[in-house]
Amino acid sequence: MSQTEAVLPVYLDGHATTPLAPEAEQAMAPWWHRRAGNAHSPHRRGTEASVAVERARIEVASLVGAAPQELVFTSGATEANNMAILGVANAAQRAGDARREIIVSAIEHKSVLSAAASLEEQGFKIRVCPVRRDGRLDVVAFQRLLSDQTLLVSVMAANNEVGTVQPIADLLSDVRAVGAMIHVDVAQLAGKLPTCVADYDFASISSHKLYGPMGIGALFVSAAAQHRPRPLFHGGAQERGLRPGTLPTPLIVGFGAAARVAALRLEKDLAHVRDLADRLVGRLEAKQVRLQRNTTGSHQLPGSLSLRFFEVDAPSLIDALADSVCLSEGSACTSGQIQPSHVLSAMSFTESEMRETVRIYCGRYNDCSEIDYAADAIADAIRRMTLAHWTDPPVRSVNEGRSH
Ligand code: PMP
């Protein structure tokens, strides 16, 4: 196994969260204490905080092609997704809009699927659009679901389990043709691939997926959207009345700095993480590990890998690697029971395909020595697991093993 100077375990789980960029950490530092102030206070500290918040808003807006005044800061993409779906449904109902159908893809984040499902009680119909085996939306099925009853469509730009990038641009003209609005969860795309939300009505962004701090995100609300979401919470008039609550200056400043760095490094990061992912797979293959890339090609988020290791139980592999490599499975363990991933199920994976699949994200701060170390550790763990499997005494029939 190659040696690494890196702190172990090697972190390859950037779909879940990315490490904070040092530039973001530095930018945040003064705002906790030395420059502390509420952006809505009338004094100098308040004004300084307000200026810093607005600068960050410009930086985030510029990363995703929005106008700064179209961004509402939230606690993350979960809240932004809820605000887009519940807030728009609420606004439409109040405005007397009779449309009651919402289309979501089958592989959306749970914060979209659950928020949409909760509207069924209020008479909304949720139409779930299937995806193909490659994890991309079934565009023909999508077109069939669209109608003049469609109020809102919510489709993610890139998936957090398998990294597939959706053909959003191909959906837009059909969505507009029926007069519906579109919300796009760009949490996994923003900062990793060029992102422009200007043609959408709503878009959700998460800071901790683009090397910013956790606990902050934003909802893009287009100035041209037919309905402006109703706020989820009651309180002050912050964020143009859409999201009450004191603005977390340090988090917003960190989010802004991370967005600025992401925009500057986009091309460099993209090439780096793509090379690392290829290097990882190449080294595993060179070590005769039997694997399959579940999602590949130009519709794959660079750095993102959904890998199936044949005849290897993914949860056991992740356990075996606990001290050396952080990767995760496409399944969530709920109350001791492994639930099959709704994403892989929607892609029509069999039970064994799901059980043998892990997700990996090679990120900006990983280097080649970490990737080599991780590949060697994975290959070793798989060899040990496979050996243990084959050295279990086989059950033989009475005739087996007799020489004639
Ligand atoms: N949407 C997607 C696609 C995500 O990957 C995530 C985070 N896993 C979220 C929404 C939720 O983001 P946050 O953690 O900022 O609430």
Based on the model shown, name its key terms:
404 residues; alpha/beta; Aspartate Aminotransferase, domain 1; Aspartate Aminotransferase, domain 2; 11 helices; globular; disordered C terminus
Written account of the structure:
By secondary structure, this protein is an alpha/beta fold. It has 2 domains: 142 residues, Aspartate Aminotransferase, domain 1 (Alpha-Beta Complex); 239 residues, Type I PLP-dependent aspartate aminotransferase-like (Major domain) (Aspartate Aminotransferase, domain 2, 3-Layer(aba) Sandwich), CATH 3.40.640. It has 11 helices and 15 strands. Helix 1 runs antiparallel to helix 7. The chain is globular and about 70 Å long. The C terminus is likely disordered.
Briefly characterize the structure.
This protein is α/β, with parallel strands linked by helices and 404 residues long.
